[in-house]
Amino acid sequence: MKPFRFLLWLYVFSMGASAQTKDTIITIQKQIVIKVPDSLSPWQRKNTIGFDLSEIAFVNWSAGGTSSVSGLLKGNFTRIYTKGNFKWGNEMILRYGVNKQDGIELRKTDDAFQFTSTAGYRRDSVSNWYHSAKFSFNTQFTNGYNYPNTEVAISKPLAPAYTFLGVGAEYSNKEKKINLYISPLTLKNTMVLDQRLADQGAFGVEKAVYDAVSGELIRRGRQMKTELGFLFTSHFKREIFRNITFEHRLNLYSDYINKFGNIDVDWQAQLDLVVNQYVKANIGFNLIYDDDIKAKEEQDGGQITVGPKVQLKQVLGIGLVYNF
Known about the structure:
It comes from Flavobacterium magnum. InterPro entries: DUF3078. The chain has helices spanning 2-14, 19-31, 195-199, and strands at residues 43-56, 68-83, 86-101, 107-121, 129-139, 144-145, 153-155, 161-173, 178-191, 209-210, 217-219, 224-241, 244-255, 263-274, 279-289, 296-299, 302-305, 311-323. It is mainly beta. It has 2 domains: 1-35; 37-323, Outer membrane phospholipase (ompla), Chain C (Beta Barrel), CATH 2.40.230. The strands form 4 sheets. A 12-stranded antiparallel β-barrel has the order 1-2-3-4-5-8-9-12-13-14-15-18. Strands 6-7 form a two-stranded antiparallel ribbon.
């Protein structure tokens, strides 16, 4: 600003400008504002939105087949605040997918809302270990069904919903792109905010009590269950080959009071194959085991509840990705 002002005044006086011209230049100087980019902001922001689409169609196909189309909308939003030895990371993951086949109603293939917030403080700027507190919330957007039965929902928004709140230690290494979290004290709340499902004791909540003789309802099912246990999470994301990125997320939880050592598992792994800046293919799977989630099966035209089972979902897709 100063060199510009000096040159401007030098030119004015050398040309013998009038007083009116000098006043005009002073006004121009006051209006000049130099904006410097805020490159030192403590916030890091990243937003990713993607849409995967797959389709197959048959017309007079002698080998037979069913036409279908599937779509998956997904988003990942992160906000990380870093100042000194303090770090506060937030991540929100959204997914919703549907499938439509000839002669069959629209069906849901994926449904997730996940939010995680971790605040940590380290003793010095060299260490990768943080004293941390972690909160997470998971639920879904729409009703879930045990297809082909679409009359009775087996899950709903906030039925279930899970919250985790705990304290522990976090290892965060930017160079190796790995994050580990260990918490010896974590409260897990399971919410089933649908009374019908709560009365059934779905997702581990205490079910309703009925009179053994008359069948009359004595007490409604609980809509919330609280546990205290041990939580371990890990997240790893790295380019393992050129244009091929591997991402892994693992959550392990065990309750101290009820069946300690019986571990709830949520494991996600995915390979992203980059075609260009906006097009990616992905291969992934999600494995879940929770002793509180009882599987349902169709039998004699109705649904019966059986024991817990390993849940496995596999995904293969190609679609558009936009980062901003």
